[in-house]
Amino acid sequence: MAVLRRVMLAAGLTGIIVPCVAATELDVVQARQKFDLTSLSVHLGDTVHFLNHDDVNHNIMTVDSDLEATDHGLQKPGETLNVTFDQAGTFQVRCSIHPTMKMTITVR
Amino acid sequence: MACLAILPRRTRSISRYLALAFLYVGLSAILTLMPRMAWAVPSFAIQTGQPCAACHVGALGPQLKPTGRDFKLYGYVASDNKPHFPPLAGLIETSFTHTNSAQPGATPQGFGANDNAALDQVSLFYAGRIFPMLGAFAEVTYDGVNNRISWDKTDIRHSREAKLFGEDMVYGLTLNNSPTVQDLWNSTPAWGFPYSASPIAPRPTASTLIDGKLAMSVVGLGAYTIWNGLLFLELDGYRGFGSDVRNALGMVPGVGADTLDGFAPYWRVALQHEFGDHYVEIGTYGIRAGIYPGGNRTAGHANRITDTAIDANYQWLGDTDNFVSAHATYIRESLALDASRVLASSNPSDTLRTFRADLSYSLDNTYTPTIQYFQTRGSNDAAYWGIANGSPNSEGWIAEIMYVPWGKADSPIHGVNGRISLQYVAYTKFDGSSQGASGHNTLFLNFRALMAFDR
Measured between CB atoms, does A63 come within 8 Å of chain B? Predict the structure, then answer.
């Protein structure tokens, strides 16, 4: 019975905790060749939507602390790029076409 | 491109000019119908996947928007990360020049006293990334007026990033062949207005050293940095070439040209900031050089020339399709003529001051009218300037309208760009004289096509 109570307690706690860490979705706007945020903190599994409000292409790159870069491809005007962060760490987000476009995303 | 070989090197009549213009239009049309050989404009646009208008006011260079300045600052390496053909590009430029009065004996050899058509230049560029942090803008030009091939504007850059006092810093090196060709702003001489000028109409005789006199006749290595996107600093050192190198590079005159004495330092400081929709830059630049006039060292001394300049830029960024920009510069030159006073009995010292200011409005990235006021004033010195009345003073206005059909994101034709510009230069004073100055007034009709070869 004690074991069963522990299992039920754990299940109950999980039920409480899971909604707290459920993946959320956040928007970052690209306008006038800038990100509207300079930094953002997200949870593991969260998805960030990069909205290209410019009339030119962008090309989002995420660079981890080991300087490993991931190319998320060309993003045309009006398009939204969705990036899910499934690794903890600090990432620099840049546009390969516009080198002054940069922001930091911390994944916890 | 082979078609160019059959073009007449010099043509004089309007009818032949019109034939040249039709040939230009025909060539452009053929190029646009070659989808497998996508001729584009220029190779920077291919590399970044951006239309010309993303970086250039009026959808065609050289006037830069902030994005264009950043692209240059970071060493011409920004890319859409797609594989591309090496960034080679070509340019063809033709023109027609009419002056208010005929200019017998004052036009280049082989041209008439007035109403001249010309194939101004055909150029080949390497413009873009070489390695991930090394890029270049390098140009070789066939000058159709003087019938020669020479190296042209060149700027090879390497850049890196760092943090200083918690803020972003970009720093790098530039190897270039003309003071200010590496500059980010269109207020300085190498990329300043007018962006094209008649190669045939006579121009005022006197100009400062930094205002093109060293262009392509030196090589310079410099270091630059910009901190927090605000403060730009640069220091370069230039050296001249011997006559053998000048000849090899196609520079005229290869022998008998002014030559640098040793090493000439160049400096640049600029502050920039965006106040909402308003971009503002103020700065200073200059050079100090020893010059042997005509390469003659027999006086035992060189002339010592110091140019100190200030400049300012303004751009309205409120609308990506319509763009207001203004540039101004004032250059003060001090000349200690230790060589010329011995060799040519000039004054022992002179001064020369140049001021220019222009304002342009780019409408729908297609029509760009520009107006400029220019003025040069200085000491009377007939022996040094080579002007009979001794005065280097000139003054006037330039009005221009430029039409650029393509180079926008919504252009029906991608990969080809060009421009037609009509320019009028009005002199109120020319080489120290107001009388007859208007005879040099120049009407200049210019066609330019730019192409980059991409797979």
Answer: no
Specify the CATH number for the domain of residue B153.
2.40.160.10
Q: Do residues B377 and B333 touch, judged by C-beta distance below 8 A? A: no
Count of domains observed in chain B: 1
Distance from B48 to chain A by nearest Cα, in Å? 6
Characterise A26 by phi-psi region: left (phi > 0), alpha (psi -120 to 50), beta (else): beta
Structure tokens at B243: 């006559």
- Closest residue in A to B48 (Cα) is A97
Is it true that the peptide bond before B265 is cis, omega within 30 degrees of 0?
A: no
In this structure, which amino acid lies at residue B430? F
Amino acid identity, residue B142? Y
Peptide bond into B62 cis (omega under 30): yes
User: Which two tokens mark A83?
Assistant: 């990036």
Write down the pTM of the prediction: 0.86
Show the tokens assigned to A6: 């522990």
Quote ipTM for the complex: 0.72
| Chain B neighbors of A59, CB-CB under 8 A | 49, 80-81
Cα distance between residue B109 and residue B455, in whole Å = 41
* pLDDT tens digit sequence for A68-92: 889 998 899 999 999 999 999 999 9
Rounded to the nearest 10°, the torsion over CA B358, B363, B369, B370 is: 10
Q: Are B386 and B205 in contact (CB under 8 A)?
A: yes
> Rounded to whole angstroms, how far apart are CA atoms B358 and B59?
18
Cβ–Cβ contact A59 with B under 8 A: yes
Which residue from B54, B73, B78 is facing A96, i.e. has the nearest CB?
A: B78
- Structural domains of chain A, ranges and CATH numbers in brackets: 23-107 (2.60.40.420)
β strands within B61-207, DSSP E: 88-99, 116-131, 134-143, 148-164, 167-176
Please state, in angstroms and as integers, the Cα–Cα distance from residue A10 to each residue in A7, A15, A18, A22, A44, following that order: 5, 8, 12, 18, 22
Domain residues for the domain of B21 are 2-453
Distance (Å, whole) CA B347 – CA A65: 64
Query: Of B361, B357, B366, B371, whose CA–CA distance to B324 is shortest?
Result: B361
What CA–CA distance (Å, rounded) separates B146 from B9?
A: 9
Cβ pair B354, B207 in contact under 8 A: yes
Kindly report, residue by residue over B198-249, the tens digit of the pLDDT: 999 999 999 999 999 999 999 999 999 999 999 999 999 999 988 888 888 8
Q: Are B336 and B209 in contact (CB under 8 A)?
A: no
